[in-house]
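Comment thread on ticket #2218

A.B. wrote:
> Attaching the input chain for the structure job we discussed in standup.
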Amino acid sequence: MQYSELAADLERIRRFLKGLSEEQQTFDQRRFAYIGCISALYASFENFAERVALRFSEMLLADPVNLTDEQLSNLRRRYVKNASTLLSQSLGVGRYREVTELDVAKSLASCLDESSTSFDLRLELIALHNSNLRWESLCELFVWAVQDLQDRIRRSDAVESWAALTNSTSGSALLGILRSELADLVERRNEVAHRAIPDEIQSHERLLAKVDFIEALALGLVASLAGLLVDVSVRNGESVSLGIPTEYYRNKRVVVIPSIGSPVAEGDFVLISGNKSTRWGRILEIQLDDARVPHAAAGKEVGLQLDFEVRKGADLRLWRTPSPDIVSRPEKLFGSHGPLSNTARSSR
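C.D. wrote:
> Ran it. Output below, let me know if you need it in another format.
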């Protein structure tokens, strides 16, 4: 889901800030470090969001059965609106330098062709936006497919873990914090890009906090969109229930299912979905009669060690046809609910 490039950019900004000593810098040096970091941070996030908008659309539209009638109708309305907007702008320059009127017309015709089972989509139409990516503009990129994206991001593990670490508010009030933090970054980026060299700057500590925020927000976006695609695969019958665990150990990463609903093997992908958030990962170890085994038959009582934390009462499902684009998840995608360290891992 296009996250790796953003992660590399965030790490570069972190290394730069941590490698500088504020005490040994002049004010002008700190000021220009601030300008560079704010500009790079916003630009990296904006490029990431645009690429995610295209990739998510391609994955969702890969099979027509993935879309509801409402989503398809919403997509077509967005295409018509964005095609009109793009054709009224200057094509052939800037971010549209490789786009022609014919490209736009062909893409729009493909999207509106109700007899076709595939779409020839362009990033410029899916991710078109004429305003900075404040909270509402960010969600607008995906609203045609995900009406509740704001709540999905707010409930994501990465965002909730970030809120806990920063002592931010939780629940529905967290939306206001996310909106305010992103707006602050946008305003600061606009100031250094369009107005003048600013007198007011932020410390390296505050800039690093902004990097952490963008990381959490980006992971929340990836988890929300990937979770929707996982839920689509569940609806399409690409998973089977293993059962609801009755015992939980090691921070709910080791579970016991009294009668497993399908044969399983070490390395299989499993998932839990629900209203709060969707999580998925691998079976690290299987125990049968207190002995480690490589696989287990249906109907057996088994202990499973997973590389993510399950929720009590959640149905654990075997993901029979996992998507390669989703299963290779970013390390921090599930926040504190992801893999334990090697020293903390243990089975039943």
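A.B. wrote:
> Thanks. Noting for the ticket: Residues 4 and 185 are 21 Å apart (CA to CA).
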